[in-house]
Amino acid sequence: MKSMKRMEIPYLDFSGIHDPIRAELDAAWKRVMDREWFIGGAEDAAFEKEFAAWCGVRECVGAGNGLDALRLILTAMGIGPGDEVLVPANTFIASALAVTYAGARPVLVDPDRETALITPEEAEKHITEKTRAIMVVHLYGRVAEMEGFAELARKYGLRLIEDAAQAHGAVRHGKRPGAFGDAAGFSFYPGKNLGALGDAGAVVTDDPELAARVRMLGNYGSARKYVHELPGVNSRLDELQAAVLRAKLPHLEAWVAERRRIAEIYEDGLRGGKLRLLTKDEGNGYYTFPVFTPERDRLLAYLEEKGIHCQIYYPTPIHLQKAYAELGYRRGDFPAAEELSETGLSLPLYPGLTEEQIEYILEAIREFAF
Ligand SMILES: *Cc1c(COP(=O)(O)O)cnc(C)c1O
């Protein structure tokens, strides 16, 4: 590392995404200000059409955030108290919380340690008479084995839900997340592949009736003003966020291509080295680039010292979170999820990361004493 000058590399930097399209973003929010219509207007309606088309499905309903998108799907499907929903043990806690908010019970499934995704084979072991749905999470931006899950859902009469919060722009056999299950929930949290300038989310589905129920539930249980058919919630996509998302959506493909290009350089630079990588997947949207080593904590501190800021997705699996003590799981119940959480860290990866920064990161890792 004597050869390279110290750099400061944030885990996430928006400038490579926002600066080149600043004029488009400014025009978007100005449009909303000029119209003075902030909820349930033209921007939301247009974004829903555009995003549904982008996903290759018929319907999109904006929501306040990704967690709400998922829980509205479950409630709209009639899933609630007494029901069980399969969820990966290593996902972000929101996937499980959506089930809890719907009143159902999350039943955790250990992922495959080579992909960090759950498989239909492992999921099948957890199906009971109470199971109503499988929530597959396209974790880190990689689409799960959806053909197998669709078959499993058919075999047991289950609903298939995609948590696509990390998978905007990913593909599997030419299809995009949202087009595989009965419905998918997206998050547009700022750091996601397609991010708003605040909280935002959406449900996509090919089922117009389900979409109508989600829309009603997210709008106080009302399809007509002041007529409330269900005890709904307030979770809508506001006009400002919708306008921003509309400005960004046309660039998503290019941003994901750039993520893939950077991931490729990491792959080439690290494959065969001391770090374990997940198996390669051409369709990955690379929300994160995780690497694994038993020396994780030492490596994390070392990279931090070099100015390279990494993230752990996620340091504590769901079954070991205090919030889910009630589920009665114990350490050792999900060995792959535990190993991933103890050994994984994700490298900076975003449009705007320079060749110099990438080389600096690779060089630092090569120089780390394992
Ligand atoms: C971000 C995320 C969510 C939640 O989205 P919010 O918009 O933050 O509510 C759900 N699931 C996964 C896998 C996520 O990464």
List keywords for this structure.
binds pyridoxal-5'-phosphate, alpha/beta, 14% strand, 370 residues, 3-stranded antiparallel beta sheet
How would you describe what is shown here?
The chain has 370 residues and is an alpha/beta fold. It has helices spanning 15-18, 22-35, 42-55, 66-76, 93-102, 120-124, 146-156, 208-217, 239-270, 296-305, 335-343, 355-367, and strands spanning 59-63, 84-88, 105-109, 131-137, 159-163, 183-187, 201-205, 222-224, 227-228, 276-277, 289-292, 344-347. Strand 2, helix 5 and strand 3 form a beta-alpha-beta unit. The longest helix is centred in the C-terminal third of the chain and has 32 residues, at 239-270. The radius of gyration is 21 Å and the shape is globular.
Number of strands: 12
Low-pLDDT windows of residues:
none
Bound molecules: pyridoxal-5'-phosphate
Strand fraction equals: 5-15%
Average pLDDT rating: 97
Structural class: alpha/beta
SSE topology string: HHHEHEHEHEHEEEHEEHEEHHEH
* Strand adjacency order, main sheet: 1-7-6-5-4-2-3
Tally of separate helices: 12
Largest sheet: 7 strands, mixed
- Outline type: globular
Terminus-to-terminus distance: 16 Å
